[in-house]
Specification:
Elements lengths: L23 E2 L10 H14 L9 H20 L7 E4 L2 H11 L7 E5 L8 H5 L3 E5 L9 H7 L4 E7 L11 H10 L3 E5 L11 H4 L3 E5 L10 E5 L1 H6 L10 E4 L4 E3 L22 H4 L24 E4 L2 E4 L9 E4 L9 H4 L4 E2 L11
Parallel strand pairs: 1-14, 3-4, 3-5, 5-6, 6-7
Antiparallel strand pairs: 2-8, 7-8, 9-10, 11-12, 12-13
Length: 360
């Protein structure tokens, strides 16, 4: 089978995604399809440009290293950060785990989350031994920042909120969340997986201390992501995983490490998948689909079911002002997993089943 012709027109957005021909893909909140330009870049890197980074003394290795660091600079600039503040990870999940495992607690052992959080912003804190407090939601499915302000204490080391909810599309007032966290001397980590593909992010204006996001939701490959952190905080964190790429000097008695962010790079990185900077601007600030229907049971412990809107036998739940992610229930209580009446009806692809949040 012949490969699809390379698409050069930025106007014909759908045609840039060869995998969704004859599909109505409504699951971009779970993972985004890949444009032909990304597919071509990966193919070219394997076929023509492949070399290690930060190790070889030959020209191709030097060129690949330059592209790798250019991608770091472009990824940092995408959210208004600096290259020395950005750690490449294997995804947002690993980024949050890195903070949970290595951030000095300084005698504080609690984390403040919300009832809207993805599992990847809950389980890492549990594994790291934190005590979790969960902020309730407002009637329309927003994180209740008034409640967060009341719940925050001097025992909280960090606050971890989704910038945009993966279930409801609720948009956090991130600047106020940062002010609340800092009022008690706590830090703020934002899960930006849904925000970076949809809205312009300027980390300097928000005031957050850490920002995590993934590549596969940003039209890139799986297995890559990034953690932005304030430089002094990254410097305060010891290495998490050991390997050859993050060392300054190794002896059998002692090892010294490079400065951040290099101290968090263990082994050969996913350099082929990072040898091109992200290009969100070509797609525009939002997903071309903009919708991820997620049928769901009530939101969580003491969590109210948001006001509903009904249309054509489908009930939409969540805030009226969302970020292009919708949660709906069809007549009969919602489709089961692999629903034939969606999967066979015009090639519609949605996310059925339960939400990736805590079980009520």
């Amino acid at each position: 089978m012949n490969a699809p012709a390379r698409i050069n027109s930025a106007l014909d957005v759908r045609a840039q995604f060869p995998a969704i021909e004859n599909w109505h893909y409504l699951d971009s909140a779970a993972t985004a399809q890949k444009p032909q330009s990304v597919i071509d870049a990966i193919t070219e890197a394997y076929a023509r440009d492949y070399a290690t980074v930060h190790r070889g003394v030959y020209q191709r290795s030097s060129e690949m290293t330059g592209r790798y660091e250019a991608a770091r600079a472009a990824t940092a600039a995408l959210i208004g950060g600096k290259p020395d503040e950005l750690v490449f990870t294997r995804g947002a999940t690993e980024a949050i785990n890195l903070v949970a495992q290595r951030l000095p607690k300084n005698g504080r052992n609690r984390v403040l989350l919300s009832q809207l959080e993805h599992h990847s912003n809950i389980v890492p804190w549990q594994l790291a031994g934190y005590e979790i407090d969960a902020v309730p939601l407002t009637a329309d499915g927003q994180i209740d920042l008034d409640a967060a302000e009341a719940m925050l204490t001097d025992d909280h080391c960090i606050v971890g909120f989704a910038h945009i909810s993966n279930a409801l599309g609720s948009v956090l007032d991130a600047k106020r969340a940062a002010d609340i966290a800092h009022s008690k001397g706590a830090l703020l980590l934002l899960d930006g997986c849904q925000a970076v593909p949809r809205v312009s992010v300027n980390i300097g204006n928000i005031g957050a201390d850490f920002y995590a996001f993934s590549g596969h939701k940003l039209y890139g490959p799986t297995g890559i992501g990034a953690l932005w952190g304030r430089a002094e905080l990254l410097d305060s964190m010891p290495p998490w995983q050991g390997g050859g790429a993050m060392i300054d000097r190794v002896t059998f008695a002692e090892t010294t490490y490079l400065d951040a962010p290099a101290r968090f790079k263990r082994g050969t990185p996913h350099n082929l998948r990072r040898d091109r900077p992200p290009r969100r601007g070509r797609m525009g600030p939002r997903h071309p689909d903009g919708i991820n229907p997620r049928p769901q049971t009530p939101l969580g412990p003491q969590g109210p079911r948001p006001p509903s809107r009904e249309f054509g036998g489908v009930t939409f739940l969540g805030p009226k002002k969302d970020a292009g992610i919708l949660w709906f229930i069809s007549q009969g209580g919602g489709p089961p997993r692999n629903p034939p009446h969606f999967g066979k009806m015009g090639g519609v692809r949605v996310r059925p089943g339960t939400n990736l949040g805590p079980t009520p």
